[in-house]
Write a structure and sequence with these properties.
The chain has two domains: 91 residues, GMP Synthetase, Chain A, domain 3; 31 residues. By secondary structure, the chain is of the alpha+beta class. Strands 1-2-3 form a three-stranded mixed sheet. Strand 1 and strand 2 form a beta hairpin.
Length: 151
Amino acid sequence: MQTPKHVNKFLSGSSDNLHRLAAHCSQLQHLTRIVREFLPSPLNQHCQVANIRDQHLVLHADSSAWATMLHYQAPALLEHLKKQPGLEHICNIRTKTSQHSQRNSDIKPSHSKLPVNTAALIKSLAESMTNPALKKAMQRLVRHSTGSSRD
């Protein structure tokens, strides 16, 4: 097991690890630019290069829908990358969905309305319920789905 190193050693410039990490980050940014220039819009704005190691390139997409579209573009992208200087060695592209890219504030609640006949059916079923909790829940469902205040 390695002994821990003081953070100052990494920040002082005496460590090759920090330089390698900075170079790797720079390489990922460069590759992201190449990938985004090749991909069609709007797909190119929903993906980025996550990592490159050996012969494998990992791309992250904002959602599973974008990851699927990216997956279908991967063979053409791979051929494009192999034509780029220094990237001839890439032989595999993996696409993943980035877990942290979608923020909760971006998710809008759905307020769909029930068809009138469905709402009427649920309302009549609620009136015949003997379980008070279930009855209230069904009445609440009808109220929220039709946009009315109180029955």
